[in-house]
Each structure stands twice: as structure tokens, then as C-alpha cells.
């Protein structure tokens, strides 16, 4: 059963008196969000989040996910502060060298598929592939909607088309990077450290999601650690207009987004 971890008075006292730890005031104080944003992680415990304590905890003031390589399916930690529609998200992220995670948004909880399973849009955090790090993926759905470095229009039948490109940059693991996600109606935009990674317009009325939960992920595969801090969210107007198909035409020379498993890794062309 999923449960939350709570900071205890004994732990707080230990942090106060142990000079080997960060200062208690630093550990306990919630980060200050930018103007117009709210902090969705308090830097102390998992209050406001729900998921298995087997995988999720707070370490050094960071929301921390760990998997030992035996996962049978991806597991999520879900924010219980509300659902996302139109929003801007900013968060600092550090992933281990073989780690794979993501920022799940407008997600759907699927307990029928297993404990702590969420489907839907994801801003990927992938240490080993620059063309996956920051891409737009749909968990247990349409899968890769845009590789990192691609501007994409998803047509009304659900086919993603590459209509432009960004320079592809590498963001090394084991250090902090700032991820930013802005979703306004059916346009989606991602950044890492201020560099744009994808722009997507989703015209697929049947497949797209306009509202859902926020979550973070630990992934099947090698042992991994993912950490998040300075986790800030701004709600935008619920009635932002949708981009219509006639406003997002697909050029005749556009190419299909390569499907997962058939997309060879691309090398960065900028650093």
C-alpha cells in the first residue's frame, strides 16, 4: 500500500545537533517560489505527495526516487495538490548516470495497471540519450510524440510530424539542471537550462489530454537515482484558446517522428 513519509521530531533534533548534516533551518525551510508560482515540494517530507516509500523519500532536502534494477513496471509519485490544465512548471533535476525518469503531467492514474501507475504526457529525464532528454513522451499511449530538438505537429489522426528543429544539446548526469514545461491549451513546450528541447501542437482530439495529475517517475532498467528540488508550479488560465488544424499546417516536406525502437540515437550538435 502506498504511504507518505513524514519528518519526525527525533530526525529534526538529530539534524540540529549533528554538525555533519546541513543546518536544520536550511533543511526545514521551504524554497521561495518565483512570483506567481507555488512550491509543490516543501523540502522536508512527502506531504502532499502519494506513492510507495519503497521507491520515494526525501534526502538532503531533495525529493528522491531510487530503484534497484528489479522493477517490473514504472512507478510514480503523485502530487495531491490538484490537477493540471494550463500551467508552467519549473524544477531542478539531478539524475544518476544510467537513470531514466520524467515529469508526468496531465496524467491519468491507472491502478488497474499496477500500483502507482500513471499514463499520459511526460517530459523525459534520460541521462544516456540527448535526443530523449527533455523530449515529449506519452506513457503507455502514443509513446514518442517529439524527440528532443524537434518542433512537431500531431495531426488529428494522431500522427506526429516534424516541422522544424532546435540544436540538440547534451546535459550531463550527476549535476543539477533546470527543467521547464509550459502547456497552454494544446501547445506544449519544454526547456532544459533555458534551452528549448521540444515544441508540440497536439491536434489529436481523441488521443490528447487536457487535464490530469502531476507525478514523477522511477523507471524499469538499471539501478537509478533521481532527485528533484526547487519544484515550482504556476497555474495559467483554464480558458486559453486551442490551436486549430488550419492554424498549424503541416508542410509537404515534413517527416514523420520516428517510432521508438526505430530511432537511432542522435549526437548533440551544440554544447
Description:
The chain has one domain (37-256): Jelly Rolls, CATH 2.60.120.560. It is built from two helices and 18 strands. With 271 residues, the chain is mainly beta. Strands 1, 3, 4, 6, 11, 12, 13, 14, 15, 17 and 18 form an eleven-stranded mixed beta sheet that branches. The longest helix is centred in the first third of the chain and has 9 residues, at 9-17. A hairpin with a 5-residue loop joins strand 11 and strand 12 (160-165).
SSE blueprint and pairings:
Blueprint: H1 9-17, H2 24-28, E1 38-39, E2 49-50, E3 56-59, E4 62-67, E5 75-79, E6 87-95, E7 100-109, E8 118-126, E9 136-139, E10 143-146, E11 150-154, E12 160-165, E13 177-183, E14 187-192, E15 195-202, E16 213-218, E17 224-235, E18 255-256
Features:
18 strands, Jelly Rolls, 7-stranded antiparallel sheet, 2 helices, single chain, mainly beta, 271 residues, 11-stranded mixed sheet
What's the quick description here?
By secondary structure, the chain is mainly β.
Continuous helix count: 2
Query: How many separate domains?
Result: 1
Distance between the termini: 44 Å
Name of the level-1 CATH class: Mainly Beta
Strand content: 35-45%
CATH topology: Jelly Rolls
CATH architecture designation? Sandwich
CATH superfamily: Exo-inulinase, domain 1
Q: Tell me roughly what share of residues is in helical segments.
A: under 10%
Shape, per Cα inertia axes: globular
Q: Main β-sheet, in a few words? A: 11 strands, mixed
Low-confidence segments, given as residue ranges, are 1-28
Order of SSEs: HHEEEEEEEEEEEEEEEEEE
How many beta-strand segments? 18
Rg calculated over all Cα atoms: 19 Å
- What structural class do the secondary elements suggest? mainly beta
- Overall average residue pLDDT: 90
